[in-house]
Amino acid sequence: MKITPLLLAAGLGTRMKSQTPKVLHPLCGRPMLTYALEAVKAVSSEKPVVVIGHGAEAVREYLGESAVCVLQNPPLGTGHAVLQAEFLLRGASDLVLVAYADMPLLRPETLIRLVETQQQNSGPVTILTVVADDPRGFGRVVRGADGSVQAIVEEAAASPEQLSIHELNVGAYCFRSDWLWEALHRIPVSKKGEYYLTDTVELAVQAGLAVQAVVTEDQDEIIGVNTRIHLAEAEAAMRKRINAAHMLAGVTIVNPAATYIQPGVTIGRDTLIWPNTYLEGKTVIGEGCEIGPETVVRDSTIGDHCKVFKSVAESAWLEEEVDIGPFAHLRKGARLCKGVHMGNFGEVKDSTLGPGTKMGHFSYIGNATIGANVNIGAGTITCNYDGVNKNPTEIGEGTFIGSDTMLVAPLKIGKRAKTGAGAVVTKNVPDETLVVGVPARPIKKLSRDE
Ligand code: UD1
Ligand code: MG
Q1: Percent of the chain's residues with pLDDT above 70
Q2: Whose CA is nearest to atom 25 of ligand 1?
Q3: Fewer Cβ atoms within 10 A, N terminus or C terminus of the chain?
Q4: CA distance 5 to 48
């Protein structure tokens, strides 16, 4: 059975008061629209159709090849919006799953239930409802004496009696395609001059056809975003959902309300996360780590048993048992091999620090390849940029870089060498050689125990 998802995203989003189309506002780091797209993917492998209008070009660009866009201009209501896809879907799909793109918390499981219910339904449509204390301005679901769904009444058109109904229309529907298109052409125009998709329910009932309803128990699912207050509400609910999934999978989150984990981040068991920690993008964290507090990890891989304390890592790779912070800054291409220790006020960019290397305090390491068990003294700087090019530095294993050494790149320092405190090293240093001064010069060959 062919099921085509159809997402409505053409509304004005006036109440967001923004230059950015509503559905592109970020929620936990991703445009809101992404969540609806992901949710419908679980239901159908068909490319979703997205109805765009307000901010059409930006939305189209964001969607790229991931969806088929149809334009609705002007926006004349949700029924009119669906109708814009008729030329694509009439006769080309068995079921059409309609959802609103501004409802990022709708879960794939719920949409699957909606479709499965419609597959059993002799009638042409199944709707998603919720029973809630706060009506949120939603359409009310009117049921007959036998409990069957009779109509959806929009708040503006509802009688006082209907206003007191607690069952609400969430805004996700599964239609039989062969019935939908013809019904949409018969929707009456509302007082506001709009065509309401919700009126299809009454059309089915009038024709003696069964309308089914799936009732969701998850109150968070129904958070639709119309204002930035709703956006924050949706963000908090999404954060709670993401954090709960990690906790159930064995991650300790000391304060979930202050832990910001984007979707797609993976975290191993027995990792502990302290508050005010942001785990973003394509981040992978191993088992038994301790992350935070006050830490940002973006697009980075962190191996097992690492400790990241009050630090920032962007596009970095920490192997196992690495310990950094407080106030360490790892930038793009930083690789810290097993057992590296990096203390306060260090920055590493496009560099590898070999296993067991220590960089305790106040250093900048850029475009460098550093061997195993190197000691990088306080205040060491790789002078990697000559105003035009970034030049490489190589340091061999077991070398000791004295405090405040300037390593003027391009530069190669051999194995088990030493630089004196304050050295400005402008020439390559052979293995097992001590250099001192400005500019640094060799003063002796080192014996093994020096
Ligand atoms: C709609 C439902 C209401 C439901 C509520 C849940 C209708 C008539 N009413 O009301 O029963 O309880 O959602 O949130 O459907 N859109 C278009 N083109 C348009 C108008 C809207 O694409 O011409 C899109 C919007 O971008 C939005 C979605 O459809 O994503 C819903 O539109 P909105 O105006 O927010 O409808 P509500 O008044 O919230
Ligand atoms: Mg709405």
Answers
A1: 100
A2: 11
A3: N
A4: 5
Q: In this structure, is residue 450 part of a structural domain?
A: no
| pLDDT value of residue 11 | 87
**Residues 377 and 274 reside in one and the same domain:** yes
Q: Are residues 264 and 179 in the same domain?
A: no
Together in a domain, 284 and 152: no
| Residue 57 pLDDT > 90 | yes
Is residue 25 part of the annotated active site? The answer reads no
Q: Which residues contact residue 343 at a Cβ distance below 8 angstroms, ignoring those fewer than 6 apart? A: 324, 325, 328, 359, 360, 361
Residues 315 and 207 grouped into a single domain: no
The DSSP H or E segment spanning 328 is: strand 328-330
- Are 185 and 241 within one domain? no
Looking up residue 382, the CATH number of its domain turns out to be 2.160.10.10
Domain holding 380, by residue range, is 228-445
Judgement on whether residues 266 and 194 belong to the same structural domain of the protein: no
From residue 198, how far is each of 82, 154, 297 by CA, in Å?
A: 11, 8, 44
Please give the Cα distance from 69 to 75 (Å, whole number): 15
How many angstroms separate the alpha carbon of residue 85 from the centre of ligand 2? 20
> Among the atoms of ligand 1, which is closest to the Cα of residue 190?
8
Q: Which of 25, 185, 305, 361 is an active site residue?
A: 361
Spacing, Cα 78 to ligand 1 middle (Å): 6
Centroid of ligand 2 to alpha carbon of 73 (angstroms) = 18
Per-residue pLDDT at 38 exceeds 90:
yes
- The 10s digit of each residue's pLDDT in 264-320 is 999 999 999 999 999 999 999 999 999 999 999 999 999 999 999 999 999 999 999
* Position in ligand 1 atom list of the atom nearest CA 8: 22
If asked whether residues 313 and 428 sit together in one domain, one would say: yes
Q: What is the spatial distance between Cα 11 and Cα 16, in angstroms, rounded to a whole number?
A: 11
Residue 363 pairs in a beta bridge with 346
**Which of 222, 246, 268 is at the close of a domain?**
222
